[in-house]
Amino acid sequence: MDSIRLNVALLRRKVPNLTTAAKSIGIRPATVSNLCTGKIDLGKAEVRTLVGLAMLANCTLDELIIRGEKLNMIETQIKTLDFFAPLVKGGTTGLVARPGMGQVVILAELMHRFKKGDYTTVFLLPVAEHSVLEGTTELADFVTTNIEDTFAKLTELDGDIIFITDKSYIVTGELLDLQEKLATEGVSNITTILLDLSGEVVDEDIPYGPLETVWQLDADLATRHQYPAVHPIYSTSSILEGVDVDQRHFNLRQRAQKLLRRYRELRSIVNVHGIEKIPDVELEVYNRGERLEAYFTQPFFVAEAYTGGGKAVALAQTLKDVEFILDGKADQMSVKELQYQGSLS
């Protein structure tokens, strides 16, 4: 059977306010979001849902559903991103976070790493000035200030492009117009990353609209300085939910999320009542979860002054390390030995 997935790019272009539109015809926004990221297998979606989405996008079902096209990831060598929510090449990724949770640092680190790869980064500045971006946009290969200049730059560049911009252009509808024009020109070499410096996107049913990847940051991790503070449960990517998923990666992610979900529950008990209230049978889960959480912290190159040097870890090594921890082979290591390190090798 051919792999099938939702044409997220088409939905983005055709239905600007998808949350309201979906609700108006009786489709839950969460259902749409999960179909876009692959949490809900498209083959198991209700026919009326797909027909409704096709109606909203004013397209046929054949246009709405992509068959046999495999998604590819862009490996960032940032452990928590590559493991829990890989960046989809040619797709759209959204950073979901409150201000001050580290999203700008993640963007800065990504741009730094892309400079060493085969990607050209274009940063379209937000409509309003944001001092938090000072020193960050300089890492982009090109910085633009309006949609017209951005269109000109994106169409003149060759090779793979990482395009970064702010939610403000979604609100005005300009980003959707830009994507429509690019599609008309046949430009398909662009991977988009969206951020929201206001933090309002956290409260939305479908942040930014349809997305292939969601990087949701976690206030608890940020408060405890466990950076990058990427939520291991709520962050997701269509690459790890689709038919063509790497089965080993998928299984390890499932195991890791199960462990971390229970660890977070136990941690709440420890914070209130102390570790002595944890049943002996759960201590292993708590200790192993604590070590896995520590492993996913990582020193960034752009924060070298504070971390002493950045670390890059290939996905293959991350999978090997996570399996090592899940199998209990790191139980004798201290949390400090695992925190802000690269690989375990």
UniProtKB/TrEMBL annotation:
* Predominant localisation class: membrane
Q: Where in the cell is it found?
A: Membrane
Does the keyword section mention Nucleotide-binding? yes
Q: Which UniProt keywords apply?
A: ATP synthesis, ATP-binding, CF(1), Ion transport, Membrane, Nucleotide-binding, Translocase, Transport
Matching entries from PROSITE patterns are given as: ATPASE_ALPHA_BETA
Q: Which GO terms describe its molecular function?
A: ATP binding; proton-transporting ATP synthase activity, rotational mechanism
Residues crossing the lipid bilayer are none
SUPFAM superfamilies assigned to the protein according to its UniProt record, in alphabetical order: C-terminal domain of alpha and beta subunits of F1 ATP synthase, P-loop containing nucleoside triphosphate hydrolases
What PANTHER family does UniProt report for this protein, alphabetically?
Answer: ATP SYNTHASE (PTHR15184), ATP SYNTHASE SUBUNIT BETA, MITOCHONDRIAL (PTHR15184:SF71)
Family assignment?
A: Belongs to the ATPase alpha/beta chains family.
- Protein name, entry field: F-type H+-transporting ATPase subunit beta
- Annotated source species: Psychrobacillus vulpis
